[in-house]
Amino acid sequence: MAHGQRTILRGLAVLLRRRPLLASAFLAAAALTFIFGLKALVHFTYWTDHRQRPIASWMSINHIARVWKVDAHELNDALQISDNALNGVSIARIAKEQDKPVSVIIMQIQSVIEEEYGEPPS
Description:
Keywords: Membrane, Transmembrane, Transmembrane helix. The chain crosses the membrane at residues 21-47. By secondary structure, this protein is mainly α. The chain folds into two domains: 3-38, no CATH class; 61-117, no CATH class. The protein is 71% helix and 0% strand. The chain is built from six helices and no strands. It has helices at residues 3-18, 20-50, 61-68, 72-79, 91-98, 102-117.
């Protein structure tokens, strides 16, 4: 270890002995900053990458609305379903309840997204 690094570590040890409350508060703040920074990084990475994935039968209306920034009520209207169906119901279940193929439901959702953005989702 270099001389400068030893000096820094000694200084931290002295700070911990002389001001334990201040040192504890600093360490807690540093830990919280790291945790929330990591959480934000994971969140942004997930939603950035997730938008590039094609619409699949496991996705719910709320999920698609959030990923593509489309109003969930517009998707509901296009699919002719009630608002209480928004609560985590998958496209596969909606297709089954409406007795339609999943591909038809996905095409209806894609048309709403295409109207909003001018291009179909990938």
